[in-house]
Amino acid sequence: MNKREAGDTVRAVMWEEGAVRLLDQRRLPGAEDYLRLRSAAAVGDAIRNMAVRGAPAIGIAAAYGVVLAARECHERQGRDWREAMDPVLQTLGAARPTAVNLRWALERMRARFADAVDAPETMLLEEARLIHEQDIAGNRRMGDLGAGQITGAVLTYCNAGSLATGGYGTALGVVRSAWRDGRLDQVFACETRPWMQGARLTVWELQQDGIPATLITDAAAASLMQAGRVRNVVTGADRIAANGDTANKIGTYGLAVIARHHGIPFMVAAPTSTIDLAAAGAADIPIEHRDAEEITRVGGVETAPAGTCAENPVFDVTPAALVDLLVTEKGLIRGPDRDKISALFASG
Amino acid sequence: MNKREAGDTVRAVMWEEGAVRLLDQRRLPGAEDYLRLRSAAAVGDAIRNMAVRGAPAIGIAAAYGVVLAARECHERQGRDWREAMDPVLQTLGAARPTAVNLRWALERMRARFADAVDAPETMLLEEARLIHEQDIAGNRRMGDLGAGQITGAVLTYCNAGSLATGGYGTALGVVRSAWRDGRLDQVFACETRPWMQGARLTVWELQQDGIPATLITDAAAASLMQAGRVRNVVTGADRIAANGDTANKIGTYGLAVIARHHGIPFMVAAPTSTIDLAAAGAADIPIEHRDAEEITRVGGVETAPAGTCAENPVFDVTPAALVDLLVTEKGLIRGPDRDKISALFASG
Question: Is A64 an 8 Å CB contact of chain B?
Fold first, then answer.
């Protein structure tokens, strides 16, 4: 097979000159604006208002946010800085409820507090950078594992790319590796209402790397599958329960049902930091609901009449039984269930 | 059960003072503008650019367009007016390819030409008005037939209401009758990308009649079904083949697959003018593709990067096997197939 470049030109989250630098995803693709955040509160706001989004990217941003918080507390309270950290961690952790990577990253940072008493910024920055680097390395590993399962056209949903992670992407990492290996023809990107991550982010990101992408409405996915034009469905995840039930962007569950109806393999690519062993199954995953205005107006334009009642759940849960393949940085699981996921963690 | 009003306050198409009066559906719900069309060419344009949409409404508008055409040709050519009608009928018939009601209405009008030689406007207006009145009466009949099958919450797609028909609606006719009979709790309206018929038209239309409606994104339908919050899925149709395969707004097929997965009955409500006995099955139904810009911008706002490749098929076909109930003005069919549809027509 022909080898192509596995491009990876986008970084959504960076640590730069003592601050967190975020590519503002609310403004893409119209503008490539970067925010420079110098406080943990500003990082919390950026997670809440979706300037940064995507489960792994949220976790990394929060980890850097902890560095900022520790600096603030250290400046104020010296060696007692840890005493002031609890409310900061709570606020950061509550910024968005569904993606578990946020909590995971905060816990990983907290585990280093004891070592960091004297020089919190330096020590904690080391850990945050490690989280970031491990995420990228994990994505590349997942890309290589997943790519071997790909043939022909991939349909993807939302954005699980460089923009949603430390870099390279989860679902789009698999896409990038499959493209590099000549296994991929093209990507169908569902626009992903209401926030349009597919239209605004995935198409833009694939354009940066020269991977052919075709935008469709979310509702057009079924007819493409019916026509035999989709060979694989690949998405990311925001939280995976211990039994393999998978929360991801609202609409993922319907795609999984439709893919199964057509015998098209449904692949979830997510790092093990997305797996929440404390959640036994779907019922333990909190689903975020966002403002109805995300549905009733698009880019400031009203698309529904005044007084419209709207419901805006932004995640749904796909039962493990509909997930054909779970790709993590620790390995690939066919038909994930409690035992196989447990074994994955036991393997170290 | 408590009896409520079966409101029906909206008329999208009217004949008024020698012209066709259309409620401009491109501008709803922001503005209730009416167009007054005095030529068949203007009616063709209004169908093409979707000022009027919905299979039955298109047929009725085209029928009135034939009246205007006959008046024009009669003014120019006197008793030989029929000689000039062919290109007009062809242009009208080609305005949109999928909804067969357009062709059906034109053929019904043409069948009256021989009787209308001396006074085409008067005679043909009589036929067009009959088509219009029969459509409304058929919708009320379908409403009553379908309502008996409804319990609890209905999920509907696109707009198959008064706006899409002569009045009362097909799917929303069933909703209106079920609401009147106290069988309906509420309606979930999918927004229906890219044209937003659900958000802009269905929610607005149900608001006029005081029927409780909740707007959701198309991709949220599956999670509502998973949660047991949808008891019936009811849609209209743009063309039904002789075997029951049903073309409707893109996304309908996916909903039918998801409804079947959850054991939720999927009902199609459509007049027999939507059934195309000349189409044996799905393969014989032409699917319209519209401009990619309908996807890449919303209300003038760009939602995808420059240079985006997009596909915009605006209908899909649900195989008859996924249609649990077909409601027509001639009767209700469970599990429609070639024989049952054939028997429906034979019943007169």
Answer: no
Instruction: Note if the bond before A29 is cis, omega within 30 degrees.
Output: yes
Query: How far, CA to CA in Å, does B318 sit from each of A101, A155, B153?
Result: 39, 20, 22
Model pLDDT for residues B199-209, shown as the tens digit of each residue: 999 999 999 99
Based on its alpha-carbon atoms, the radius of gyration of chain B, rounded to whole angstroms, reads: 20
Instruction: Please state, in angstroms and rounded to a whole number, the distance separating the CA atoms of residues B106 and B86.
Output: 11
Model-level pTM greater than 0.80? yes
Give mean pLDDT in consecutive 10-residue pieces for chain B, a chain of 348 residues. Answer: 58 96 96 97 97 97 98 96 96 95 97 96 98 98 98 98 97 98 97 96 96 98 98 98 98 98 98 97 97 89 93 98 98 98 90
Nearest to A316 among B212, B223, B303 (CB): B223
Taking the C-alpha atoms of residue A26 and residue A201, their distance in angstroms, rounded to an integer, is: 10
Which chain A residue has the Cα nearest residue B314?
A220
Q: Is B58 exposed, middle or buried (0-12, 13-18, 19+ CB in 10 A)?
A: buried
**Beta-carbon pairs below 8 A across chains A and B:** 194
Which residue pairs, CB below 8 angstroms and at least 24 apart, start in B112-117?
B113/B70, B113/B82, B113/B85, B116/B70, B117/B79, B117/B81, B117/B82
Q: CB-based contact (8 Å) between B177 and chain A? A: no
**Is A250 an 8 Å CB contact of chain B?**
yes
Residues 6+ away with beta carbon under 8 Å from A280: A241, A242, A243
The single residue of B238, B276, B316, B324 carrying the catalytic annotation is B238
For residue A20, what pLDDT band results from cuts at 50, 70 and 90? very high
Angle at B102 between CA B97 and CA B107, to 5 degrees: 120
Instruction: State the DSSP H helix or E strand holding residue A229, giving kind and residue range, or none if neither.
Output: none
Q: Is A17 on the interface with B (CB under 8 A)?
A: no
Name the token pair of B305.
């990067």
Q: In what order do the strands lie in the sheet with A13-16?
A: A13-16, A19-23, A34-37
Amino acid residing at A62: A
Reported ipTM: 0.96
DSSP bridge partners of B289: B313
Q: What are phi and psi of B127, to 5 degrees?
A: -70, -40
Q: Which of A207, A298, A312 is nearest residue B298 as measured by Cβ atoms?
A: A298
CA-to-CA separations, A114 to A69, A118, A295, in angstroms, rounded: 15, 9, 45
Distance CA B224, CA B86 (A): 49
End-to-end CA distance of chain B: 33
- Reported in sequence order, the residue ranges of A242-292 that DSSP labels E, i.e. its strands, are 246-249, 266-269, 275-276
- Cα distances (angstroms) measured from residue A3 to each of A6, A172, A176, A179: 9, 17, 11, 8
Name every chain B residue with its beta carbon within 8 A of the beta carbon of A313: 220, 223
State phi, psi for B141 to the nearest 5 degrees.
Answer: -65, -45
pLDDT of residue A1: 36
The secondary element (H helix, E strand) that includes residue B37 is strand B34-37
Q: What token pair was written down for A156? A: 């993807």
Structure confidence by residue, pLDDT tens digits, A270-287: 999 999 999 999 999 999
